[in-house]
Amino acid sequence: MAPDVLLMEQEEIFLLTENIHFLSKEQAWHYRVLPKGRDGLRIELYCEAGVDENDLAVELEVLLGNEVILEPVPVTMIARLLSKYYLRENVAEGTGQIQVGKQGDDFLEDLISEAKNLKSSDIHIERYEQKCRVRIRIDGNMVERYLLKNDDYPALINKIKISANLDIAEKRLPQDGRINFKSGVHQFDIRVSVLPTLYGEKVVLRLLNNDATNIDLNSLGFSDFDLENYLQGVKRPNGILLISGPTGSGKTTTLYATLKLLNKETRNILTIEDPVEYTLEGVNQVQLKESIGLGFAAALRTFLRQDPDVIMVGEIRDPETANMAIRAALTGHLVLSTIHTNSAWGTVSRLIDMGIPPFLVANTLSTTVAQRLIRLLCPHCKTVHDFDPSMYPRQYRPSKEVKLHYQPHGCEQCYYTGYKGRKAVYEVIPVDLDLAEEIKKGNANVHALLAERGIHTLAENAFEIFSMGLTSIEEIYPLLFNY
Predict the structure, then answer these.
(1) CB 280, CB 263: distance < 8 Å
(2) Separation of alpha carbons 341 and 338, rounded Å
(3) For the chain, percent of residues with pLDDT exceeding 90
(4) DSSP 27-77
(5) Which three-class secondary structure state does DSSP give residue 397?
(6) Sheet hosting strand 310-313, strand order edge to edge
(7) Cα-based distances in Å from 417 to 140, 414, 448
(8) Please, which residues have CB within 8 angstroms of residue 375's CB and are 6 or more apart in sequence?
């Protein structure tokens, strides 16, 4: 099978809103059918593959009073779409179905609680010409959960705006706000973003996990060798430790696990973040506010007058912030931050592009890390297949042979995505004297030196997880291009 075929998503079924009323919620769930459409006096329904279609059609024709045409589709697809199009109330815990009430006054609270229970990071509420939908991001991927009536959409958006102290009359401009959510055992902050679109306002709710007490470096995904290299940089009294990766790759979580390790009574720790995603007792945290002039660089200037031992900067994204971070490291402070590059060593060229002289980068950069998150296959439904080496990218040469591999299937336990949970993959480079000399020389090709030190790349670490049967070739495929 060719790689481009592997990356294609499974064909989806979309039900038109005007067809939903063909069946009641009770009928849809009892007979496990979904409305496809109407052809004259005939009603077309999707049913589960493998059922006796003749008997089912006869029973449905008596019930509905119309001729019924059935089209079989996979059982997992029927189960997933029933959850999405026909909300089920009071379902027993553990069935994998949605446990919410009707789309009434409590729908927003139920939606947020459900997303939190599913360990979702974001809720997307969107309006289109024919439908309104709610999607949530689980393990990095979007999953459509609900369809809303067009008439219910404005009231839901207004309720969100009121909770976030936004202007409900303003529908032409983007708005940003924050909600402190409290419901039962749940208490956390939600970042709200409202964006005007063609058919209405799109709202994204980012669920922020305030509690950093359960974050631990040993459980994030470091190999023993990488963790040892990383801790060498953390234990240094000064220098810059940078973590690179795209948005949503877990960089902030790794930084807070590091701060938790460094958080002692004998240390003064200051952070400047946008937003403050975790709270950690004993750490002085500052929320960035660009509108009043409180940016990363401005906060760093003040931090240097606050007698710090450790400074965390949410992100180095401009030359001014980079220069202030270098200055802090030169004056004897340990600086932790993130930066957007594709690899650990790419951090060096990124700092130089920002105007930092190579000799200063060499003298201050102590450790550079690249990080990604990959989804793990659901242990309840993953399937095993023979492996074809043509599934690798053409230029990739694996370190060992793989004869069998696992593929996602989908079940109630994983909400029919085929994946359950994620694991971080790291590439850690401690900058020693030899590597510092290469930085001063402007030499970007250090593969030989890294290999001598046993440094494993992102691709190598991701391949190891794949070879153990914990993830699929599709999940690690993008990382293999950086081999």
Answers:
(1) yes
(2) 9
(3) 45
(4) HHHHHTEEEEEEETTEEEEEEETTS-HHHHHHHHHHHHSSEEEEEEE-HHH
(5) coil
(6) 284-287, 269-273, 310-313, 334-339, 239-244, 365-377, 419-430
(7) 11, 6, 40
(8) 139, 140, 141, 419, 421, 422, 471, 475
The confidence score (pLDDT) of residue 435 equals 93
Q: Quickly list H helices, 183-338.
A: 224-234, 251-262, 296-303, 319-330
Tokens 């850690």 -> residue: 428
**Does the pLDDT value for residue 16 go beyond 60?**
yes
Q: Does residue 154 have a cis peptide bond before it, meaning omega lies within 30 degrees of 0?
A: no
pLDDT digits 0-9 by tens, 55-109: 899 888 888 888 999 999 888 788 778 877 776 543 333 333 333 334 555 788 8
**Residue 123 CB contacts under 8 Å (≥ 6 apart), including other chains:** 111, 112, 115, 134, 135, 136, 137, 204, 205, 207
pLDDT tens readout for residues 292-351: 989 898 999 999 999 999 999 999 989 999 999 999 999 999 999 999 988 899 999 999
**Cα separation, 39 vs 25, whole angstroms:** 22
> What pLDDT does 130 receive?
77
Pairing of strands 383-386, 404-407: antiparallel
> Whole-angstrom Cα distance, residue 300 to residue 308?
10
Average pLDDT of span 456-462: 91
Q: CA angle, 404 as apex, 401 and 410 as ends, to 5°?
A: 140
Cβ neighbours for 304, distance < 8 A, ≥ 6 positions apart: 327, 328, 331, 333
* pTM of the shown model: 0.74
Instruction: Please give the structure tokens belonging to residue 385.
Output: 């297949």
* Cα angle, residue 282 at apex, residues 264 and 285 outer, rounded to 5°: 125
In the chain, count H helices and then E strands.
16, 18
Task: Answer yes or no: are the C-beta atoms of 422 and 428 closer than 8 Å.
Answer: no
pLDDT band at 267 (very low <50, low <70, confident <90, very high): very high
pLDDT tens profile 100-147 = 334 555 788 888 888 888 888 899 999 988 778 888 998 888 887 888
Tokens 């402070």 locate to 333
Average predicted confidence (pLDDT) for the chain:
85
CB 288 within 8 A of CB 294: yes
What are 208's two structure tokens? 């922020």
* Of residues 258, 240, 232, the one with CA closest to residue 430: 232
d(Cα 372, Cα 422) in Å, to the nearest integer?
10
Say if residues 106 and 159 touch (Cβ distance below 8 Å). no
